[in-house]
Amino acid sequence: MSRYIIRRLLQTFIVLLGVSFVAFGVMFLTGDPTSLMVGEDWTQEMVAELRHQMGFDRPWYVQYADFLWHAVRGDLGTSLRQHQPNLKLIADRLPATLELALAAMFISIFFAIPIGVLSATRRNTWIDSTSMLAALLGQSMPVFWLGIMLILIFGVYLRWTPVSGRGGLDHLILPAITLGAFITARNARMMRSSMLEVLEQDYIRTARAKGLRERAVLYRHAIRNALLPVVTLIGLQFGALLGGAVITETIFAWPGVGRMTIQAIQGKDIPLVQASVIVLATIFVLTNLVVDLAYTFLDPRIRLN
Q1: How far apart are CA 99 and CA 285, in angstroms?
Q2: Contact 64/256 with Cβ under 8 angstroms?
Q3: Are the C-beta atoms of 268 and 30 separated by less than 8 Å?
Q4: What is the SS3 string spanning the chain?
Q5: Mind listing the pLDDT tens digit for each residue in 17-34?
Q6: What is the pLDDT of residues 49-101, one digit of tens each?
Q7: Is the predicted pLDDT of residue 300 greater than 70, yes or no?
Q8: What are the two backbone dihedrals, phi and then psi, of residue 85, each rounded to the nearest 5 degrees?
């Protein structure tokens, strides 16, 4: 195992440790976290019993050490409202969130890369102008507004697709488009910018001077190198999609982790919120680790050392 991989694994561990500390410490921003969990009709005896049950009557560092010990063993606590293990609740909802995030990412890759390449190779033409205008509009539209508009047009007026819930492919179309529109626009702009930079390099001119066909120049030399910054961005976006799907899942009543987290916040279910943050952060960090290790497959000049 190279020193680079060991260093990246160490960095991953440090980041996850920091996330766990922040997720744990957020509870104490308002003082006694017990006050966030009780109702107005609770007596002092009931509050004291809950404080003891949750371990809030111990020093914070003892609570954090206990929290870490259980987290490492796969025990992220129990939901206060649903009275089930938090990890089980997240595992039940995570497939829905992953399905939505993967669908949105597929839409982004399927459209953004060809649009970016076409726009760069047709620079300063009507194709380039139209593509970048569409990308600008895609980045400008708020997610909640786009979701509502899609529901009104395709769900209410045209009745082509369902407007809520999770089921077949028809249930996935509108949420995936809503979640993927912004990243599709960003990736298309990034791909165009990266392609324009690569097309000005000396090795591209050399390949053309050797008599290679333009298609070979693009596919074998330009696109492969232009993908490096886009792959980095995609890795960051996929992790962000898992946490950023909260709005989309809420609008379309999609039964994912994001919607469950919002419900947990509204229900003052702090242990479930903590567990959700840690799980999503872990997926985000591991995704970026995989992206870093994937660089050598795109560009052999990069060595992980």
Answers
A1: 19
A2: no
A3: no
A4: CCHHHHHHHHHHHHHHHHHHHHHHHHHHCCCCCHHHHCCCCCCHHHHHHHHHHHCCCCCHHHHHHHHHHHHHCCCCCECCCCCCEHHHHHHHHHHHHHHHHHHHHHHHHHHHHHHHHHHHHCCCCHHHHHHHHHHHHHHHCCHHHHHHHHHHHHHHHCCCCCCCCCCCHHHHHHHHHHHHHHHHHHHHHHHHHHHHHHHCCHHHHHHHHCCCCHHHHHHHHHHHHHHHHHHHHHHHHHHHHHHHCHHHHHHCCCCCHHHHHHHHHHCCCHHHHHHHHHHHHHHHHHHHHHHHHCHHHHCCCCCCC
A5: 888 888 787 766 656 666
A6: 777 777 777 777 788 888 888 888 888 888 877 888 888 888 888 888 888 88
A7: no
A8: -60, 135
Indicate whether 244 pLDDT > 70: no
Would you tell me how many other CB atoms lie within 10 Å of the CB of residue 199?
18
Region 122-126: mean pLDDT is 85
The reported pLDDT for the residue numbered 79 is 82
10 Å Cβ neighbour count for 1?
Answer: 7
Return the sign of the alpha-carbon dihedral for residues 42, 64, 21, 67: negative
> Could you give the CA distance from residue 96 to residue 92 in angstroms, rounded to a whole number?
8
Token look-up 């139209």 returns 130
What are 23's two structure tokens?
């997720």
> Which pair of tokens denotes residue 250?
């809420």
pLDDT surpasses 70 at 39: no
The closest alpha carbon to 116, from 187, 199, 200, 180, belongs to 187
